[in-house]
Amino acid sequence: MIPSINDPGENTAGLLYYLYGPGRAEEHVDPHLVASFDGMAPDPGRTAEFHRAIKELAALIDQPVEALPPHSRPALPVWHTSVRAAPGDRILSDDEWAGIARRVVAATGIDPGDGEPGCRWAAVRHADDHIHIVATRVCEDGSRPDDFRSGMRAQAECRLIEKELGLTLVNAGDGTAAKRPSSAERHKAERQGREQTAREELRETVRRAVAGAQNEEEFFDRLASAGLLIRKRQAPSGDLLGYTVALVDDRNEDDEPVFFAGSTLAPDLSLPRIRERWSATQQDPSADDLAGTPSGPAQARRHAAAAAWQAVLIIDHGNDQQVAASIAAAGEVLDALAKTAAAHTRKQLRDAARTFERASRSHVQSERGHDRALRQAARDLVYGGPALGRGEDGATTAMVIDMVAFLVIAAAHWHDRKNHAQQAAAARQAAEHLRAAYQSAAQHPMAVLRHRGRRLSQPLQRRQVAHLRQAVPELAEQILAEPGWHALAATLADIEAAGHEPAALLAAVVARRELDTAESVSDVLVWRLRRLADLPADASAMPEPGTATPQSARRAKRPSSGRNTPPRKAR
Predict the structure, then answer these.
(1) Are 191 and 206 within one domain?
(2) Across-strand partners of 2?
(3) Contact 109, 51 (CB under 8 A)
(4) Helix (H) or strand (E) holding 280
(5) 183: enclosing H helix or E strand
(6) Whether residue 261 sits in one domain with residue 157
(7) What residues are paired with 261 via a beta bridge?
(8) Is 433 domain-assigned?
(9) Based on the structure, what is the number of domains in the chain?
(10) DSSP for 77-143?
(11) What is the DSSP letter of 257?
């Protein structure tokens, strides 16, 4: 059950006309009163004298306000909230909604009961799944209600109602979520045939513009390139204070663009919050060594996979402030991946980025600087360019998605430990989208590796089984039974040909992180090993195992790094 406290208003009658009217798209069905402050308020939905009943109900609710001298009346006297059942919940009766309305106005301080002064209110139902509660913000005795943090109090009461009525248990909010589109915004999007509301589309576009950006000029250039209208708010001194953005084709009734401030799109998209991301890099002298940009999408994805791995270690061992910064930066990496994704993974990666956005914010203050590698990885991905989804691009895409999925799962575990229910749920949902994206990205490169593994000579296959049993005896039987075992065998053979010790390297990567959350342990080990041993992600770029000496295999094609360096040693 989801309560949504709206901004205070000034016109009770106008709001009632909307609630009892047909709605913006004829979505209001059988509007009627289910409860009121005294149980005797007139119901415009149950009388032929509609307009007179609306005026009578508005006058009745407004009477305590009108009784005050004009100078003592609040400028915005109307309190309004909606209470909506979760999707999939049973249809509640009018009596049940009436009880819910009474509990919500009591919990929020609008009408506390037990002889305390309360405000006048009415609850209107015009759909199966929700009600609206309209009230004044002046009590019967002329005092103001104690409605401080009424949103949080309504949330807490709804959690109790869900349990008592056997409804879906909704994760409690903590005030860090982005503002949901209003019903008016949703209906406008439906009329215009948009998949998202203007608010949601702008939030996603601004988020992608932030990903990896290093300064204001670059950020605003990206917004302009995305086709947004931009207004900058400046102080008399000329200093930039904030910004608003609008879609070119989103207009109001006066045919003017509808602008949204960054802070109204999401709490972390205000200009001061965005500047915090830049400040750590600008103040860190060592940031200069990250100025270089990878030569293409494959190398950028390798860098991102390495940065994601380091971020997993921070989540495992860092303090809360460092973890919060890394999780926020992980959102930038997801946005950058979605922005540069090949067609067959684009939808899943966009869904993952959109969902993880909720997991990227909490009340834990980020300690900037520890997120620098991830933010640089996001920048590398953007400037590395779109991946074509084939060859090394496609294989490194599978590699980075696999690693980022572990990062997202680690974020979910951390949020669980901190009792951040909504963030943990969002991270788990993002991980599901990433798993789907991985299946699409990994299909071809893993098929190549499995084919190579099946073609290994019998002595070479037995040697890789021996390496596996030596390194991870507790997982050996499970891995050997997986479809991905042949891909892992081919990778171990490639590692051996490159001059590494397969069993030692395999034991090292297994020790680095638990594998309980992996759907395919062999797949995970393949990408960890190929990244750590600096092997090409696309195995078709290498000679068949057993056909090259270790020395000649070292000269096999690798992603260009701009330097002529030997393979890295296992760390």
Answers:
(1) yes
(2) 84
(3) no
(4) helix 271-283
(5) helix 183-192
(6) no
(7) 244
(8) no
(9) 3
(10) -EEEEEEEPPTTPPPPPHHHHHHHHHHHHHHTTSS--TT---EEEEEEEEETTEEEEEEEEEETTSP
(11) B
Last-in-domain residue among 112, 144, 170: 170
Contact 83, 104 (CB under 8 A): yes
One-letter amino acid for residue 269 of the chain? L
Instruction: Give the model confidence (pLDDT) of 459-518 as tens digits.
Output: 999 999 999 999 989 989 999 999 999 999 999 999 999 999 999 999 888 876 667 667
Q: Does residue 95 sit within a domain?
A: yes
Burial 489-513 (b: 16+ CB within 10 A, else e): bbbbbbbbbbebebbebbbbbbeeb
Cα atoms found within 13 Å of the Cα of residue 533, Cβ hemisphere only:
30
Separation of alpha carbons 207 and 226, rounded Å: 12
Kindly state whether residues 144 and 190 are assigned to the same domain: no
Domain assignment present for 56 = yes
* 333 close to 304: Cβ distance less than 8 angstroms: yes
Owner of token pair 């910064």: 325
Examine the domain organization and report whether 194 and 155 are in the same domain.
Answer: no
User: Which strands, in side-by-side order, build the sheet including 229-234?
Assistant: 229-234, 240-246, 260-261
pLDDT in tens, 259-275: 999 999 999 999 999 99
Taking residue 36's Cβ as centre, other Cβ atoms within 10 Å add up to 24
Whether 398 is covered by a domain: the verdict is no
**Do residues 163 and 183 share a domain?**
no
| Beta-strand relationship, 229-234 and 130-139 | unpaired
